Amino acid sequence: MHLLQALLSFEGVEIWDRSLDSLQAGEYEVDCPCCGVTMFVVIGQDDSFCCTDDYALQEVRKSPLQPVRTQQLEGLPRRLFTRTLADGQESLAHAVRYLFGRAVCPDCGTEFSVAERVVAGWIP
Ligand SMILES: [Zn+2]
Question: What DSSP string runs through 68-115?
Fold first, then answer.
């Protein structure tokens, strides 16, 4: 959590503004912090999961995402959450909780922070 907060303050708001665009699309590509496999993190209204294969083309092994509790949101994530809610974008606010939540690598079982991996894979 400390790493994430440091990253948020160093990287500034731009990355998260652009991340919100990805959030609209509902998909991120991230690397596993342990085994390095490339994953799709899919945040949808009905189903939120991560997987290592192209889920659009085939049946894949899905690993469910764990959204952060609303009460645990603070700093920038909280601002994003309240801003999207204030804009009436409830589905986006819902997605923010998954973006700042946790996921488990389907290959090696390592739990990681989705937002941290998004930042780690960020190319300006
Ligand atoms: Zn892994």
Answer: PPGGG--HHHHHHHHHHHHTT-HHHHHHHHHHTSEEE-TTT--EEEHH
Residue range 15-58, pLDDT digits in tens: 666 666 777 778 889 999 999 999 999 998 888 999 998 777 88
- Which residues contact residue 123 at a Cβ distance below 8 angstroms, ignoring those fewer than 6 apart? none
Q: How remote is the CA of residue 4 from the centroid of ligand 1, in Å?
A: 19
Ligand 1 mean position, distance from CA 89 (Å):
32
Task: Give the Å distance between the CA of 50 and the centre of ligand 1.
Answer: 11
Q: Residue 103: beta bridge partners?
A: 112
